[in-house]
Design goal:
The chain is mainly α. It contains eleven helices and no strands. The chain has helices at 2-12, 18-27, 32-42, 47-59, 61-76, 80-95, 98-103, 105-113, 121-130, 135-158, 160-165. Helix 5 (61-76) packs across helix 10. Keywords: Membrane, Transmembrane, Transmembrane helix.
Protein backbone atom coordinates (compact mmCIF):
# COMPACT_ATOMS: atom_id res chain seq x y z
CA UNK A 1 0.00 0.00 0.00
CA UNK A 2 2.83 2.41 0.84
CA UNK A 3 4.22 2.10 -2.68
CA UNK A 4 0.83 3.04 -4.17
CA UNK A 5 0.42 5.96 -1.78
CA UNK A 6 3.88 7.25 -2.67
CA UNK A 7 3.15 6.88 -6.40
CA UNK A 8 -0.17 8.75 -6.19
CA UNK A 9 1.30 11.38 -3.88
CA UNK A 10 4.30 12.01 -6.13
CA UNK A 11 2.33 12.09 -9.37
CA UNK A 12 -0.84 13.90 -8.31
CA UNK A 13 0.75 16.54 -6.08
CA UNK A 14 2.45 18.05 -9.13
CA UNK A 15 -0.94 18.92 -10.64
CA UNK A 16 -3.45 19.43 -7.84
CA UNK A 17 -3.55 20.64 -4.25
CA UNK A 18 -2.34 18.44 -1.40
CA UNK A 19 -5.90 18.32 -0.02
CA UNK A 20 -7.28 17.08 -3.35
CA UNK A 21 -4.56 14.39 -3.49
CA UNK A 22 -5.64 13.19 -0.04
CA UNK A 23 -9.32 13.27 -1.04
CA UNK A 24 -8.74 11.26 -4.24
CA UNK A 25 -6.55 8.66 -2.51
CA UNK A 26 -9.25 8.23 0.17
CA UNK A 27 -11.79 7.38 -2.54
CA UNK A 28 -9.66 4.69 -4.20
CA UNK A 29 -10.41 1.05 -3.33
CA UNK A 30 -7.58 -0.65 -1.42
CA UNK A 31 -6.02 2.70 -0.36
CA UNK A 32 -9.11 4.36 1.11
CA UNK A 33 -8.87 6.36 4.34
CA UNK A 34 -5.69 4.54 5.39
CA UNK A 35 -3.87 5.63 2.27
CA UNK A 36 -5.29 9.14 2.51
CA UNK A 37 -3.98 9.63 6.05
CA UNK A 38 -0.61 8.19 5.11
CA UNK A 39 -0.46 10.55 2.11
CA UNK A 40 -1.47 13.47 4.35
CA UNK A 41 1.40 12.77 6.71
CA UNK A 42 3.83 12.49 3.77
CA UNK A 43 2.51 15.77 2.32
CA UNK A 44 2.78 17.40 5.76
CA UNK A 45 -0.93 18.22 5.97
CA UNK A 46 -2.11 18.60 9.55
CA UNK A 47 -4.21 15.79 10.99
CA UNK A 48 -6.97 18.28 11.84
CA UNK A 49 -7.27 19.16 8.17
CA UNK A 50 -6.62 15.68 6.76
CA UNK A 51 -9.02 13.61 8.88
CA UNK A 52 -12.29 15.20 7.66
CA UNK A 53 -11.04 15.14 4.05
CA UNK A 54 -10.18 11.43 4.32
CA UNK A 55 -13.47 10.51 6.00
CA UNK A 56 -15.54 12.38 3.39
CA UNK A 57 -13.48 10.95 0.53
CA UNK A 58 -13.84 7.41 1.85
CA UNK A 59 -17.55 7.68 2.68
CA UNK A 60 -18.75 9.15 -0.65
CA UNK A 61 -18.66 5.87 -2.65
CA UNK A 62 -20.27 3.77 0.12
CA UNK A 63 -23.99 4.59 -0.43
CA UNK A 64 -23.56 3.90 -4.15
CA UNK A 65 -21.95 0.53 -3.43
CA UNK A 66 -24.63 -0.41 -0.89
CA UNK A 67 -27.50 0.64 -3.16
CA UNK A 68 -26.35 -0.29 -6.65
CA UNK A 69 -23.49 -2.81 -6.72
CA UNK A 70 -25.67 -5.91 -6.99
CA UNK A 71 -27.53 -4.48 -9.98
CA UNK A 72 -24.28 -3.30 -11.59
CA UNK A 73 -22.66 -6.71 -11.06
CA UNK A 74 -25.74 -8.45 -12.46
CA UNK A 75 -25.57 -6.32 -15.61
CA UNK A 76 -21.83 -6.73 -15.99
CA UNK A 77 -22.02 -10.53 -15.60
CA UNK A 78 -24.18 -10.62 -18.72
CA UNK A 79 -21.19 -9.51 -20.78
CA UNK A 80 -18.46 -11.92 -21.70
CA UNK A 81 -15.76 -9.32 -21.04
CA UNK A 82 -16.65 -8.62 -17.38
CA UNK A 83 -18.19 -11.93 -16.21
CA UNK A 84 -14.91 -13.47 -14.99
CA UNK A 85 -13.79 -10.30 -13.23
CA UNK A 86 -17.11 -9.84 -11.43
CA UNK A 87 -17.22 -13.49 -10.37
CA UNK A 88 -13.66 -13.18 -8.96
CA UNK A 89 -14.59 -9.97 -7.10
CA UNK A 90 -17.69 -11.60 -5.63
CA UNK A 91 -15.75 -14.73 -4.66
CA UNK A 92 -12.99 -12.69 -3.05
CA UNK A 93 -15.45 -10.50 -1.13
CA UNK A 94 -17.53 -13.45 0.01
CA UNK A 95 -14.37 -15.27 1.09
CA UNK A 96 -13.90 -12.52 3.66
CA UNK A 97 -17.54 -12.46 4.76
CA UNK A 98 -17.56 -15.02 7.62
CA UNK A 99 -17.34 -12.53 10.50
CA UNK A 100 -19.93 -10.27 8.87
CA UNK A 101 -22.34 -13.19 8.35
CA UNK A 102 -21.91 -14.32 11.93
CA UNK A 103 -21.96 -10.99 13.78
CA UNK A 104 -23.51 -8.61 11.22
CA UNK A 105 -23.17 -5.14 12.82
CA UNK A 106 -20.13 -5.85 15.01
CA UNK A 107 -18.51 -8.00 12.33
CA UNK A 108 -18.93 -5.28 9.71
CA UNK A 109 -17.70 -2.58 12.11
CA UNK A 110 -14.54 -4.56 12.92
CA UNK A 111 -14.00 -5.54 9.28
CA UNK A 112 -14.01 -1.89 8.22
CA UNK A 113 -12.32 -0.55 11.36
CA UNK A 114 -9.28 -2.80 11.68
CA UNK A 115 -6.84 -1.66 9.00
CA UNK A 116 -5.65 -4.93 7.51
CA UNK A 117 -5.01 -5.68 3.83
CA UNK A 118 -8.25 -6.49 2.01
CA UNK A 119 -10.50 -4.86 4.59
CA UNK A 120 -12.09 -1.43 4.58
CA UNK A 121 -15.23 0.44 3.67
CA UNK A 122 -15.27 -0.59 0.00
CA UNK A 123 -15.00 -4.33 0.65
CA UNK A 124 -17.24 -4.09 3.72
CA UNK A 125 -19.91 -2.33 1.65
CA UNK A 126 -19.60 -4.89 -1.11
CA UNK A 127 -19.98 -7.79 1.33
CA UNK A 128 -22.89 -6.11 3.15
CA UNK A 129 -24.63 -5.56 -0.17
CA UNK A 130 -24.03 -9.11 -1.41
CA UNK A 131 -25.25 -10.52 1.93
CA UNK A 132 -28.24 -8.14 1.79
CA UNK A 133 -27.52 -6.72 5.24
CA UNK A 134 -30.01 -3.98 6.15
CA UNK A 135 -28.76 -0.74 4.58
CA UNK A 136 -29.29 1.36 7.72
CA UNK A 137 -27.47 -1.14 9.91
CA UNK A 138 -24.63 -1.54 7.43
CA UNK A 139 -24.29 2.23 6.89
CA UNK A 140 -23.93 2.87 10.63
CA UNK A 141 -21.51 -0.04 11.07
CA UNK A 142 -19.37 1.15 8.15
CA UNK A 143 -19.31 4.73 9.42
CA UNK A 144 -18.35 3.60 12.94
CA UNK A 145 -15.68 1.36 11.39
CA UNK A 146 -14.32 4.35 9.49
CA UNK A 147 -14.04 6.31 12.71
CA UNK A 148 -12.22 3.37 14.32
CA UNK A 149 -9.87 3.07 11.31
CA UNK A 150 -9.29 6.84 11.47
CA UNK A 151 -8.13 6.64 15.08
CA UNK A 152 -5.85 3.68 14.38
CA UNK A 153 -4.39 5.22 11.23
CA UNK A 154 -3.95 8.59 12.92
CA UNK A 155 -1.71 6.90 15.50
CA UNK A 156 0.17 5.04 12.77
CA UNK A 157 0.52 7.97 10.36
CA UNK A 158 1.01 10.87 12.75
CA UNK A 159 1.98 9.23 16.02
CA UNK A 160 5.06 7.42 17.21
CA UNK A 161 4.97 4.87 14.39
CA UNK A 162 4.48 7.64 11.80
CA UNK A 163 7.57 9.42 13.08
CA UNK A 164 9.64 6.25 12.64
CA UNK A 165 8.51 5.96 8.99
CA UNK A 166 9.72 9.47 8.08
Amino acid sequence: MEVLVHWFTDNLSQHISREMVIFIISMIPILELRGGLLAASLLKVSAAKAIPICIIGNIIPIPFILLFIRQIFKLMKKTKIFRGLIERLEKRAMGKSDQIKRYEFLGLLLFVGVPLPGTGAWTGSLIASLLEVDIKKSSVAIFCGLIMATVIMYVVSYGIVGNLLH
